[in-house]
Every structure is written in C-alpha cells, then in structure tokens.
Amino acid sequence: MKAPDQQSARDQTARQKASHSFETNAGYLSKSYRDGAGTYDLDLGRMGYCGPTVVAELAAATQTAYFAKERAVITILDAGCGTGLVGLQLKRLGFQLIDGIDLFEEMAEKARQTRVYRHVRSNVDLNGPPSDHASASYDITVCCGVFVLRHVRPQGLRELARVTRPKGFVIASTRTSYVEATGFDSEVQRLQDAGVLVLVQRLNDARYLAEENAHYWVFQVPEKASAPTEERP
Ligand SMILES: C[S@@+](CC[C@H](N)C(=O)[O-])C[C@H]1O[C@@H](n2cnc3c(N)ncnc32)[C@H](O)[C@@H]1O
C-alpha cells in the first residue's frame, strides 16, 4: 500500500472506532451528567482534574500576548461549561465577560450558581447543526473536557470557530486517547486547509487527569475566515 493509502486506511479505522464510540452518547451522557451533576466537582477533584486551570491560564496568556484591550473586557464563551470549573478559573484570572453553553440543564444550572457567568444556556448540542448563537461573537472560546469519547466529535470545532470573531482564539483540550481514536488531527488539518482555523500553539501530552494526559490546543480564527457552514453531521 502506498503512503497516502495507508494514511487514508488509518483515518478510516480511526473514524470507524470513533463512530462506534459515539453510538451510545445519549444514555451514557445523560447518566453521567443529568444524574451526576451534584457530585461532578467532587468526583473530578478526587481524580486530580487540572484541565480547567490549564485552559484558563492559556486563555490568560493568549490575552496578554495578543490583545491590546484589557482582560476585563474580553468576551469569552465556555463551551461545554459543565458545572463552571473553567469559569471559576477564568474569573480568578480577571476575565469578567464569560458566557457558558452546555447540553444539559442540570450542569448549566450548577454553572449559573457559581455566579461567574453573564449567561448560561443549556440544550446546545455541539454535535448538532450550528446553534442560533450569532457568528463571530466572542474574542476567545474555551472548551475543556468536551472533546472526549462519547461526547463531542472533532467536527464540533467548526461551531467553536464560527462563534469566535476573526483574529479571536479557540482553546480546547483533547485527551490523548481521543486524538488517537478519532483522527482529531485530520479534522484540524481540514479546517486549516479550509481557512477556518490556524493552530498557533499546542501543549503536548500535558497534565489533565491523574489517569490520563491531554493535549491543549490554541487556534486562531483568520482575519478573513471562511464561513464554516457545511459538513456538520
Ligand atoms: C467532562 S465535562 C467538562 C465540563 C467543564 N468544561 C469542565 O472542564 O469541568 C463535559 C461537559 O460537556 C457537556 N457535553 C457533552 N456532550 C455535549 C454536546 N454534544 N454539546 C454540548 N455539551 C456537551 C456535558 O454536559 C458536560 O458538562
């Protein structure tokens, strides 16, 4: 087999594995997050979860490095905000204009209770068609712990890019096993080729949970971003 064929066979195997991993979404997620919202922070705390701290600190470094305006006026969307762990870290670092979205109302309500968000919306599915959020709304979009097997497919990155303004940033974590199983790299390449996002930084194999490391990605939306409308499942 020639090299490109081998690559496409690898991509196909990864896609097959990934689609299998996403089959049981509804029941698995509902059990984890509808029933588990009350104990989520405690459970993650026991598991040494430091993803929200890393993502928020990357957002802070990105603001210092790239934005002339001060941190307090940067608009941030926390996509898949869960109970608000990332929002709390963002607030600690001086961000003030933070919105959240999540699939489950139970998690969104916990996030609202932190009082660090301006607005938190539930029933927003990053695996679905583009949401009714206006395009180019946010300076920075963060997404921590959401590109996880049986959660959000790599194609969800398009929606994150869509709601982020040109020259804004998308910061996301991916468990290392997720990248291997889903071909996340290939989706990143597709989006870069289409002019939707540019990868400006990646922390490889960094601390995330005691049981597994993650990669942390910082993307920039180009000044003249292509309208990322097609190819949503
Ligand atoms: C592991 S939690 C991470 C929560 C938070 N970002 C954090 O780091 O603590 C994953 C979150 O993604 C949400 N989620 C899962 N699938 C989703 C989807 N398709 N669209 C939007 N959110 C989703 C879950 O409801 C849950 O709150």
TrEMBL record:
Region entry Disordered, spans: 1-21
Top-rank taxon: Bacteria
Pfam families linked to this entry: Methyltransf_25
Keywords for this protein: Methyltransferase, Transferase
GO molecular function: polyprenyldihydroxybenzoate methyltransferase activity
Record GO biological process: methylation
Entry annotated with the keyword Magnesium: no
Domain Methyltransferase: 76-168
InterPro entries assigned to the protein according to its UniProt record, in alphabetical order: Methyltransf_25 (IPR041698), SAM-dependent_MTases_sf (IPR029063)
Cross-referenced PANTHER family: JUVENILE HORMONE ACID O-METHYLTRANSFERASE (PTHR43464:SF23), METHYLTRANSFERASE (PTHR43464)
Entry protein name: Methyltransferase type 11
Record organism: Mesorhizobium mediterraneum
